[in-house]
Amino acid sequence: MCVESDGCEIEGCSSSDEVRTLSGSMSPGLKSNPDLHPCKPGQKFRAALLRCRSPAAAAGILSFGNVLNYMDRYTVAGVLLDIQRHYEVTDSGIGLLQTVFICSFMVAAPIFGYLGDRFNRKVILSCGIFFWSIVTLLSSFISKEYYWLFVLSRGLVGIGESSYSSISPTIIGDLFTNNSRTMMLSVFYLAIPLGSGLGYILGASAKVAAGDWHWALRVSPLLGITAGALILFFVPEPKRGSADQMGGRIKTRTSWVCDMKALAKNRSYVFSSLASAAVSFATGAFGMWIPLYLARAQVVQKTAEACTKEICNSTDSMIFGAITCVTGLLGVLIGAVTTRLCRQKTERADPLVCAVSMLGSAIFICLIFVVAKKSIVGAYVCIFIGETLLFLNWAITADILMFVVIPTRRATAVAFQSFTSHLLGDAGSPYLIGLISDALQQSYATSALWRFLSLGYALMLCPFIIVLGGMFFLATALFFLDDREKAEKHPSNDFFYLGNMSIWCFLYAKRGTKI
Asked: How far apart are CA 430 and CA 211, in angstroms?
């Protein structure tokens, strides 16, 4: 027998059961009491609703929301050529869309990280997802004379999506523990490449089906509103640290300034954050420009004509989206397996595997620009291998953060890592690549060949940044063991076992972009 918060009996419960209230609190099972009265019909419905709010259902809903978060982010990239023709803007102008989005995302991340450590998380999540859904829907009705307003709308969407990426993993972390938490967080973050790839596919498919690219921005908002409602009704608000039996034993929370000083002295955290910025730089630029680059390559090869119609061919966006889905999944899985095997040889396996994968990725990404002029198939092969190696470090980077940062400081660490990786990475890379491409085109006579080459030369900056990121991971390896030992011996870890579990927590907030 269970008791609801208003004092009525809920049928179908045993005396040892507990019931979650709609606020997320727990009501312990009680013995029969003559003062209790049977639940009214409305209260029975509420009780049935509470029984549906299981941790597994909550993790599934949050993962669904994560898919939508990234799907909406890359829907614009799936119809980028149509947007450029509609608003009649240059490469740098179209690159500004992603830059403004990421800038607002990274500025909002520390704010939501602070709020997420102190206030009701599911309310913040729901408000954020409702906000970006409504803004995205309204942006599809902006006329061609107001491109600045369309750019502004992407900035507002970035604020809404930042709330979700910063907070939702912490709820899963408090609902599960040990292997269960590892599995659920794995599912949650595997939704990132899936959602990113689906964004390209959705944008291209909706445009073709409706005959108008604006409809690409009208599908994900409807799904987003549905996800927001599901979060409000079916996702509980667990006590922070409850899954680790720390709920009542976490020591007094330190101030934000104290946390930031400690993180600044954590060398593994600093270098891994800089490496994450390098990954973000490359993925942000590639996610925005590669479909357009391949479209120009086909014009040069004379296997396709330059787009002069209202609706442009979106085959490259759909193929690139499919590749992204597959490479994201493969990269995360291969990275986890490789690290587990390498840990048997060295305790520095995590940063070393990241460094090797980054350096290998740079080689294949360079080859893209060598073979694209002659073979689109060859370019896709290089993209597949390069992306897989680049995505391989996602889960591992998350483990590095979990190892070297104490539990009571992780939300702040994730938020600030998200801020720095976007600030130094994909906040400026799409615009910078477009700016370089425009400058090269103005230096020479404009032609289809030179428009293709200028964008390729601009994108060649990415492999060099990736190599730099590999160097930062090597630097992380030098200090990894010392910083991990300090975190394990910290007083707040008296009741918390880190071990070697591969918690893939927080890795996309700090990645505003997949490729």
From this structure: 27
